[in-house]
Amino acid sequence: MSENTGVLELRCFGQSFQLGMLYDYRSHQPVTESTLWESDTVENISSSCISPHSKNEVFTSGNVEEMAKVFGIDSNFRLSLMTGLVNPSGIGKFIIHGDPPKRDNLVRIILKYETTSRFEELSMDQARKEPYRDLCSEMTATHFVSRIEYGREAIFVFDRRVDEDETFADVEADLKFAVDSLSQVAVESDVHASDLIDEEELSKLLCTFYGDINQASSTSGMSYEDAVRTYSELQKDVESCLKEVPKKVWLQPLSTLDSQWVQQGRVISPPVTEALESILENFNEFETYLSGLVDNKTCSTFPVLKQRISRCGRAVSRYKKNLLKTFSDLLPVVRGGDEAEEVLTDVLNMVASSPFHHDGLSSWKSGMEKEMKLLSTYLEFFKGIQLVSSSIDLEGMDIIKIGKSKALNFRDFVKENENDESAKFIFTNVQKGTGQALVDIQLFEAGKPTKFEPPGRPGKPYATKTNSSSITIGWKESPHGGEFVEMPKRGLGPLVEKVLMVVGATGAGKTTLINGMVNYILGVEWKDDFRYKLIVEDSGLSQANSQTKNITAYTFYPMEGSSIPYKFTIIDTPGFGDTEGLKRDKIITNQIKEFFSIPPPNGIDHLDGIGFVTQASLARLTPPQEYIFDSVLSIFGNDVSKNIFMMLTFADGQHPPVLDAIKKANIPCDKYFKFNNSALFAENTETEEGFDAMFWKMGFRSFQNFFTQFAKSESVSLRLTKEVLKERDQLQNLFERLNPQITMGLNKIEEMRQEELILQYHEKEIETNKEFVYTVDVTKPHQVDLKGTGRHTTTCLRCNYTCHKDCAIADDREKRGCLAMDGSGNCTVCTVKCNWSEHRNLPYLIEFETVTETRTSDDLKKKYETAVSGKSKVQGMIAQLEDFLQDVHSRVMTMIYQAQQSLYRLDEIALKPNPLTQVQYLELLIESEKNEAKPGWRQRVEYYEEAKRQAEILSKVKDVAAVE
Predict the structure, then answer these.
(1) What is the pLDDT of residue 950?
(2) Superfamily of domain 497-714, CATH level 4
(3) Closest of 193, 200, 182 to residue 58, by C-alpha
(4) What is the pLDDT, as a whole number, of residue 106?
C-alpha cells in the first residue's frame, strides 16, 4: 500500500470493490455497498483499459515480512490482516497466518502465478464536477475507490521431505528445478513432467494450492500432475478472460472532493507491526515445535507428557487469540486519533512480561527436553520389561543417583526371578503429590502396595565358632534389601474420600437436609429413640435468615453399621439471598475462596458433587431467585457441570415444578433427587403403618438413591474453580480502581472544559494582562474515617490516593503482596507506578468530592504560564489541556485492557457468568425488590444500584470500541 499524494494502493485478497465505493482506512473495511455517485454517473466518468499479461515468480518460504514484500503489502495493511480486521482469501491467509513446514526436514518452494486482464479508473476531473451523495451519515469513511486492477492470483506451495541419505541443499535444488519446469509442462502439450523430472522424485512432492475466487479457495494434498492441470486451467481462464476478480484498488481521500471531509488516518509505526509479527512468529514456531514433540517415541510412551504438551498448546493458542482480539479492537481507535499509539505498545509490553514471552516458552521447552531425554534413557535401560504408563516427576541430581542405584537393583532382581510365573514385573511413573517417593520399588500383594527392597547377595562367609563336629558361619549384610520397616495397617492403601458441597438459597431446607443425611449415614432407624442433629437451628431466626454463618466441613469415616463404605466430607455453606443482601453474598463468596485455599489434610483439593438445594414447589423463578441460582453457579469452574446434583426439598410424589423453571432459566441440571424430611424429628410412637413412618421410609430411600449415584461420580479438581474465584477477585479489585480513576478523569476534563470556555471568553483580558475573577467546579480529596471498622487500606503517600480500599494486608512491611502491586512490586493504580514501599495502611480512605471554587486570572496564569511556541497565550493553554486529556485516555484504556483479559478468561472457565455483571438483570432485581418490599429491601436495592453502576462500566469494557 503506497501513500503518494494521499492515494492508497491496496491488495484486495477476496474483498469485493467497485468504483466510487466508500472505504474506512482506520478499519480497512468498505463502509457501504452503495457508491459515492449513482451507477450511471460512475459509468459516465469512468474508463476501462484492457491490458492482458501474466508472470510467474518462484521463491523459498519466508516469514510474514518477507512474504508481504513479495506481494507489496505495507506494515499497516499487514497489521490489519494479522489481527483479523480484514478477512482475506486463501492467498492472504497463507501470507499472514502462514502454513509453516511442520518438520525441520521439509523443503518448501512457492510458485506465485499472477495475471492482469484490465483496469477500471475514474476521471477525477469529471468526478469533481458531478454531484455526489451527502456524506453526513457516512462520516466513518475516509477514502473512495478511484481505480481497480482486475486479474487472477494463485499460489502453489510445494513440500518435499528430506530423506536420511539426502542433504537439504540437494533436495532444495531438485525441488526448485521441478517448480521452475511446471509452467513449461503445463503450457507445452508435447512436454511431459516425466521427460524432465525423475518419476520417483515427482512422487515425493506434495502441493497445496491457494486461489482467489472465494474465501476458502485452497486445496491440499495435490500431486505434481494435479498442480500442472490446475496451472493449465488458470491459463485457459486468463486467455478467455473468465473468472477475473479485483486484484488491487487505488483509494482517493475524500478531501480531494471536499476539503471539509478531512478524516484523521494515523499510520501505525512499523516497529509495532514488526513487534507483533515477532510475537506471532514465536507462537507459530512454538506450536510447530509442540506438534513435532507429540510424535516423539518417549512422549507416545508416557501419555501424561502428551497431556501436558496439549495443555500448553491450548494455553498458547488461547493467549494468542486474546492478543489479536485486543489489537483488532484498538487499531481503529488509534488510527482515528482517539488514542495514542502507546496503548498498542503497552499491550506488547504486557506480552513481554507474561509467561508467553519468548524466554518463558524457551524455558518450558528446555525443561521438557531435559525430562524427555532422561525418560528415554530409562526406556532403553529397561528394555524387555513391561511398561505401565502414568505420569512422572524427576528432578535433582540426588534423585537421579538414587534412581540409578534402585534401577540396577531392580534389574538384577528381575533377572534372578524371570522364570517365576507367580510374579510379574513392571515399571511405571507416579502422580506428583501422591506421597510416594519419586523413585521407588513397591510390592503389590492383593492390590495393596508396600515398600520393597530387593534382597541383595550376602557378603563373603566367615567362621564364627568351630569344634570337632561343626562350624558356625556368618556373613556381612547386603548393601541393600536388609532393612525392615514396620508399617501401620492404615498406611497400606489410601482411603477413598468423597466430598459433597451443599449450596442453596436461604430457606431452601439445607439444614434439615444435612441433618437427615447424617442420620442416614449413621444408620439411624425409625424405631430408634434418638436422632442426630449436626446443625442446631436457631429458633429465633426466621426462614429469611440463614442458619449457617460460616462454611463448615464435617467428615465421616466408614465404621460398622455405616451406610457408606468411604470417607465422606460434607461442606455446609451459608444460604445465599439472606435479608442482609448482596453484601452478605460477597462475604460468602470470599469465605468459599478462603476455604478452597486451605491445602489438605485440613482442607480439600477436589469435589465429587455439588448439592444444589432448592424447594421442589417453585413453579417459576423470580428475578431474586434466579439471581441466587446464578450467583451460586458462577462461583465454580465449568468442569463441575456434570457433578451438580439438584436436591429438591419439601417434595411429594408429583413432578417437581421447579425442574421446568430450572430448565427455562438454562441452569445445568443432569441429575436431581427428591427429599421430604418432614418425619425426621417426628415422634415415633405411632405404628410402622403411620404417615410419619411412611415418610421416614421414603426419606431413607431418597438418601439411598442419592448416595448410590453419588458413589459413581468422578472427582473434579478445584484448580479451575480456584482460578474462577481468583479472576473474580482481581476483576472486583480492578473495578474499585477503575471507578474513581474514570470519575476523577471526567471531573478533571469538565474542570478544564470550563477553564477553556473562560479562556475563550476572557481572551482579550489575558492577552492584555488584565485581572478578572471566575468560578469553576473542581475535584478535591477528603478523608473518610475507618477507625473501628476493622478495614485496612493501601494508600500511596506520594500520590495521596487510596489504591486499594479493602486490603487483606495490615502490615506496611508486607504491602508488596497487595493486589494493587504487580510482579515487580510497583503499584498498578498509581499514575507513575509508585513502589510498594511508598504505600501505607492508613486509618482512613482518601475520596474525592466536587466543590465550586472562586479563582482569579493569576491562578490561570500560574497554571498555564508555559507558552507554546508560535501560539498565543490562550492557544498555548488549550494545547496543554489537550495533552492532559490524551494522558487520561491512555491510562483508562490500559485498565480496560486488563479487565478484558479477566473477562475473556472467565468466559472460558466459569460455569455461569456473574449475574452482577448484567445491567438488565440488575434492573429486574431492583424492580422486583421494590415491588415485593420484603424486610431489608431498601438496603438490598442500595447494593444492587452500586452493582449496576459497576456492570455499566463492565459492559463498556467488553467492547472497547463502544467506549470510544
Answers:
(1) 66
(2) P-loop containing nucleotide triphosphate hydrolases (3.40.50.300)
(3) 182
(4) 82
